[in-house]
Amino acid sequence: MDKNHKGRSTAVFTREEVETLLSDTGLPKDRRDLYALLFLTGMRIGEAVALRWNAWDASAQPLGRLRVSRAFHRKQRREKGVKTERSREVPVHPVLARVLDAWRQEGWKRKQGRPPTADDLGVPSRSGEHRRDPVVHAQILKDLELLGL
Predict the structure, then answer these.
(1) Which residue intervals define the domain Tyr recombinase in the entry (predicted)?
(2) Which of 1, 96, 124 is nearest to 39 (CA)?
(3) Which end of the chain is least crowded, N or C, by CB within 10 Å?
């Protein structure tokens, strides 16, 4: 259940706004990749920040898939089951597959100083920990303002 029942209907982005958020090189690559996960999968922030590399099956056909079964609970500072209490598989759009592959092959290592393992978080904070949803939300708002959106 949403805390703000009216908020979801007003949280709408145009295709052009999403493309700008995902491609503008004025934004850090790790944030653009996190935004790609959020916009191209419909995951909640807590689900996206708990996603680990072993959740991505890039070989699945006709599209790769992400297994969404965990979320990060910021107040308890631990991973837990997803809000709906039901794991799900999310198809990976070809654009997202390219983003994830480039991030895994180059960006993650550049940011964390080593190649990722299957158990590593996909989009960790700069310290290598789970990102916090209020921080991610504040960053999105800041980035929207920076981009004039």
Answers:
(1) 8-149
(2) 96
(3) N
Contact 43, 90 (CB under 8 A): yes
32 vs 107: CA distance, rounded Å: 11
DSSP string covering 27-86, please?
A: S-HHHHHHHHHHHHH---HHHHHH-BGGGEETT-SSSEEEEE-EEEETTTTEEEE-TTS-
Contact assessment for residue 79 and residue 72, using Cβ atoms and an 8 Å cutoff: yes
39 closest CA partner among 21, 55, 54: 21
For 72-122, the DSSP string reads: EETTTTEEEE-TTS--EEEEE-HHHHHHHHHIIIIIHHHHHSSPPPTTSBS
* Spacing of C-alpha 89 from chain mean position: 15
pLDDT in tens, 9-22: 666 888 999 999 99
pTM (two decimals): 0.84
Q: For 69-89, write each residue's pLDDT tens digit.
A: 887 887 777 778 777 777 899
